[in-house]
Amino acid sequence: MNSGSKMLQVISILMIVFGAIATVIELIGLLGLAVLIETFGLPGILYLVYIVLMLSGIAELVIGIIGVINCKDQSKAQMLLTCGIVIIVITVLGNIMSLIFYSDGFNVFSLVSGLLFPILFTVGAIQMKNGPTGPMGPGGPAGPGAPGQF
């Protein structure tokens, strides 16, 4: 198992845990939001924001599971890379919607912490893709015996 695979496995497990936690928290927030909208007349578009944020947590959970299942199979690296990019886009979209429709609910820490695992997942997929049989590994252009190798 190369370093990308190991990193992908660890990050995938963390994504499963935190994706599940985020999904539960967003579900509770969605239920609480219904009460706030009825009581204080907040805009109903906040439902959409919470649903996108909840989908982000669900996507993180599902992609974490996909990562754990496929982290040892280098032929799945491109698919895992695509999954990482998808979760980054969903996370950014949710935060942009939060900023537009509910500016009190947005903060930079939330964006950075929400992107940490998806970015590390994507980096792990890239490392896995370029692993031992990739361009920089043994047999690649700079393989054993290539000029400049020690």
Structure report:
It is a single chain. This protein has 150 residues and is an all-alpha fold. It is 74% helix and 0% strand. Helix 1 (3-40) packs antiparallel against helix 2 (45-70) and helix 2 packs antiparallel against helix 3. The protein has helices at 3-40, 45-70, 77-101, 108-129. The model has no long low-confidence stretch (mean pLDDT 82). The chain has four helices and no strands. The chain is elongated.
Radius of gyration: 19 Å
Helix content: over 70%
Instruction: Note the main sheet.
Output: none
Number of strands: 0
Low-confidence stretches: none
Q: Quote the beta fraction.
A: under 5%
The secondary structure category is mainly alpha
Shape: elongated
The H-and-E topology, N to C, reads as: HHHH
Q: Please, what is the oligomeric state?
A: single chain
C-alpha end-to-end distance: 23 Å
Mean pLDDT, all residues: 82
SS element count, helices? 4
Name the descriptors.
single chain, 150 residues, mainly alpha, 4 helices
Write the layout of secondary structure elements.
Elements: H1 3-40, H2 45-70, H3 77-101, H4 108-129
Helix pairs in contact: 1-2, 1-4, 2-3, 3-4
Question: Short description, anyone?
Answer:
This protein has 150 residues and is an all-alpha fold.
